[in-house]
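hey
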């Protein structure tokens, strides 16, 4: 799949569906960006969090974070946080649409993911405090059946599916970010 095909499919699928939104409650509102870049085909951008941040230490995630009262909305929060974390100017991102809200149980967040195409070349600048490094993963790798492993884990008496992606180089994606990625791929597949 080319980047142009992925962008067109993403835009069409997200525009043609009703997004699940979680409103209110005690959970902290957060927003992330699911950045698409062109690297001999489409690639998604992830971040590796440092070991000294307050939450999600050492985990791989999409760039983003808490929604501030000064943010105009979830997209603005995702773009602001992404620029702070990895130096991606929001003006270089073409928003394609929002995915369903995703809740985290342990850390009590409601995450609103926005998919966006990065239109200009960028030199990643991980901030070093929250983000250790940037990871670009070819889209083709993410859709390989061998890259995804599904395990079943029990939490609070409920058996849940847990998705684990082998991103290569020893990096494994799991948790809320893996659920967001799974949802995105399901939307693209028409599920």
């Amino acid at each position: 799949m080319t980047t142009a095909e992925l962008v067109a499919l993403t835009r069409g699928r997200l525009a043609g569906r009703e997004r699940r939104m979680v409103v209110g409650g005690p959970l902290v509102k957060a927003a992330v960006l699911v950045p698409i870049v062109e690297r001999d085909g489409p690639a998604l951008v992830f971040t590796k969090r440092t070991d000294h941040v307050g939450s999600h230490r050492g985990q791989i995630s999409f760039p983003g974070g808490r929604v501030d009262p000064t943010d105009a909305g979830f997209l603005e929060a995702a773009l602001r946080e992404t620029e702070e974390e990895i130096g991606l100017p929001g003006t270089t991102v073409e928003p394609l649409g929002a995915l369903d809200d995703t809740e985290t149980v342990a850390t009590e967040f409601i995450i609103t993911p926005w998919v966006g195409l990065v239109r200009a070349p960028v030199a990643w600048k991980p901030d070093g405090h929250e983000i250790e490094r940037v990871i670009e993963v070819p889209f083709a790798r993410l859709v390989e059946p061998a890259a995804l492993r599904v395990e079943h884990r029990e939490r609070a008496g409920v058996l849940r599916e847990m998705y684990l992606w082998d991103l290569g180089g020893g990096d494994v994606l799991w948790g809320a970010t893996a659920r967001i990625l799974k949802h995105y791929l399901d939307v693209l597949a028409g599920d």
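The first strand starts at residue 28 and ends at 38. The helical segments are 3-15, 74-86, 139-142, 175-189.
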